[in-house]
Write a structure and sequence with these properties.
The structure is a homodimer of 204-residue chains. Chain A has 204 residues and is an alpha/beta fold. Chain A has a domain of 136 residues: P-loop containing nucleotide triphosphate hydrolases (Rossmann fold). Chain A has 8 helices and 9 strands. In chain A, strands 2-7-1-8-9 form a 5-stranded parallel sheet, sandwiched between helices. A 4-stranded mixed sheet of chain A has the order 4-3-6-5.
Chain lengths: 204, 204
């Protein structure tokens, strides 16, 4: 019912299984999200297609886009930039289609600043639910080990605070179903649909 | 995962089918909501049970509860009060169970003031989606007829603005599924679960 697509951002601590969950979502045939093709400054490899695997750009072009605020999010890995160009995402959203990004938490933080009305989903490890037993263990661990676990847990909870939803990745199919329900529900949010009704009334 | 239950409020314009949808939700066996038993000042009828069908109270007792702010919402119909006592709802939510209310829009407005973090779902008639054709009709209607339809549509859209979600009641089973997905998704909201994690960390 909403005119504009939703920007859906899936993120979470490293090792939580974001990529596996994202693949499972795109493999199911009842989704209607668009891939967001990333941009990179690394060399095109044999068989890779511009605009399909990546948008391949020079370092100068990429840095120009960063400066003019045209990257939704980006990071540098081993001397090359990787990121999400804003233009593709905006065009797809404007066309009324949902865009699904699966990115690292640093990237998600950048997206949150630029698109605050996106749907931010934090994938949590199943053991965050059993935080206490996970940290205290069997009561035989050294205090510094327990302290380190508390630090990691505190960081994960701090990260989570920036998101709209927390989904436990206990089993991939469960996580996929939860995420799909969240996305469908977000389409029913009054603040996403009421504008359409108001415009219809005004146009008459 | 959340400690406290959710207060779910289903409302919408009269005639939209709120009661039918609520009954279908409670008849499905995969729900875990609690009924909220209403309170009334009308006489108990043959076979009705205190605390099951209604809480039966005198007019004085009911008005006392209104004055002390202990009614979540109430209204007067044909000389009798009907309403939702706050205490039952609070106790059930405190016990970690979801409470589902299906009430008129005036009542929902009162609940919104007292429990702003409830989940407010507005059931819309299917023809609100086809607002334009519904109002303009076949182009042969008198201007005052069209004006009256616009007024009704405007009122429905204004009501909707107070809610979190708008669910179209095109077919009862569809509306039921949408509402269930919304409720499940609301349980994944970070602001509903993060407090639990923070408390767990603090307790260690």
């Amino acid at each position: 019912m909403s005119d504009r697509g939703l920007l859906i951002v899936l993120s979470g601590p490293s090792g939580v299984g974001k990529g596996t969950v994202r693949k499972a979502i795109f493999e199911s045939n009842d989704n209607d999200f668009q891939y967001s093709v990333s941009m990179t400054t690394r060399k095109k490899r044999e068989g890779e297609v511009e605009g399909v695997d990546y948008f391949f750009r020079s370092r100068e072009e990429f840095e120009q886009l960063i400066e003019t605020g045209e990257m939704l999010e980006y990071a540098e890995y081993v001397g090359n930039y990787y990121g999400t160009p804003l233009s593709y995402v905006q065009q797809t959203l404007d066309a009324g289609k949902d865009v699904f990004l699966e990115i690292e938490v640093q990237g998600a933080r950048q997206v949150k600043e630029k698109v605050p009305d996106g749907v931010f989903i934090f994938l949590t490890p199943p053991d965050l639910q059993e935080l206490k037993s996970r940290i205290v263990g069997r009561g035989t661990d050294a205090p510094d080990v327990i302290e380190e676990r508390m630090k990691v847990a505190r960081e994960e909870i701090e990260m989570m605070a920036l998101y709209d939803y927390a989904v436990v990745n206990d089993e991939v199919p469960n996580a996929v179903e939860r995420i799909k329900k969240i996305i469908e529900s977000e389409h029913y949010r009054v603040d996403r649909v009421i504008g359409k009704y108001i415009r219809m009334l005004k146009e008459m």
